[in-house]
Specification:
Blueprint: H1 11-36, E1 50-58, E2 61-70, E3 73-79, H2 84-89, H3 92-107, H4 119-136
Antiparallel strand pairs: 1-2, 2-3
Length: about 140
């Protein structure tokens, strides 16, 4: 005769095999993801990511310094737009903020060299940066 053969598959065994196959795939994907991310530590750096603000009192006015942290490190420091009085009476303050900001970002430290001309302004900026970094600490 033609040799027709019948294969009997029990539904219970088929479902059990499918469940184990899916669980196996999930475990393998989980292990691969775990080992690929093993070297990446999200808790690197001293600071939490975000933008933090420090204030400095300049005469009767207040100016703000924005400290941006990315990947746990200081990424940018900028002076928020000062008021007209601050810009008029303290013209070197913005220059000092730019210089000190670049140095702090480059060294990732608040210990930086400043010009003798801008020593007072630079110290005000460093104090405001320290205030912002205090908020960013983990």
């Amino acid at each position: 005769m033609g040799g027709t053969k019948f294969v009997v598959v029990k539904a219970k065994e088929l479902v059990k095999t499918a469940v184990f196959a899916v669980l196996g795939v999930i475990i393998i994907v989980g292990l691969i993801t775990f080992f690929l991310n093993m070297g990446k530590d999200e808790d690197t750096g001293l600071y939490r990511d975000g933008t933090y603000y420090g204030e400095m009192q300049v005469g009767q006015e207040t100016a703000e310094i924005a400290v941006t942290v990315e990947d746990g490190e200081i990424a940018d420091i900028s002076m928020e737009t000062p008021g007209e009085a601050v810009a008029a009476f303290y013209p070197l303050l913005e220059t000092a903020a730019d210089e000190v900001g670049r140095e702090v970002v480059a060294t990732q430290s608040l210990t930086v060299a400043v010009d003798a001309e801008n020593a007072h302004s630079a110290q005000l900026v460093l104090n405001a940066i320290a205030e912002g970094l205090e908020q960013a600490k983990k």
